[in-house]
Amino acid sequence: MQTHSSLQSTWLRSYYFTRAAFSVGWIAAAILLAGQPRAVAFLLVIYPLWDALANLLDARVNGGLQANPSQTLNVAVSTVTALAVVIAFGTSTYAVLAVFGAWAILSGLLQLYTGVRRWRTEGAQWVMILSGAQSALAGGFMIGRSLGTAIPTILDIVPYAGFGAFYFLLSSIWLAVAAHRKAHA
Q: Domain span at residue 44?
């Protein structure tokens, strides 16, 4: 029979792996469909909506929204971001990139906080903490890029999604190794 801790570790490994797989699929779609405006719009709206859904599911599995305020706020921020992306499309791709940059900063800081909070109970959260910090830095870069002269495209967001995929996959692997070591200790 699995303990709560091992069930939690199993959930987090699956959750992180699923998030990595989604990001890899999103990146492939972004690269393949970069020249198709409707597909790009869909991809840029679905990315923060997926983040909102993923945070909602994870918060519910881990005691509910009230017990996970950083994820609850991340659900709200990501949902508002999807709406802001729709509105920004009416303005310019510069505005879309600025919205993504602001979202990367906010969601990165919230992810960093969630990682720090989870470290106490789950351990092996250093990757998620690093990812949250990197997300905030990437957001600043996107905002800076949105103020430049080069016309932004979805391909400006692909590296951000790529690092996210890498960190989620690394977290999943790290937790799997930790569970294996614990089981054989």
A: 17-183
Q: Is 9 a member of any domain? A: no
Q: Give the number of C-alpha atoms closer than 13 A to the C-alpha of residue 68, restricted to the C-beta side.
A: 21
1 within a domain of the structure (yes/no): no
Say how many domains are in the chain.
1
One pLDDT digit (tens) per residue for the chain, 185 residues:
556 566 777 888 999 999 999 999 999 999 999 999 999 999 999 999 999 999 999 999 989 999 999 999 999 999 999 999 999 999 999 999 999 999 999 999 999 998 888 777 766 678 888 999 999 999 999 999 999 999 999 999 999 999 999 999 998 898 888 888 888 87
Four-CA torsion 132, 134, 140, 142, nearest 10 degrees: -100
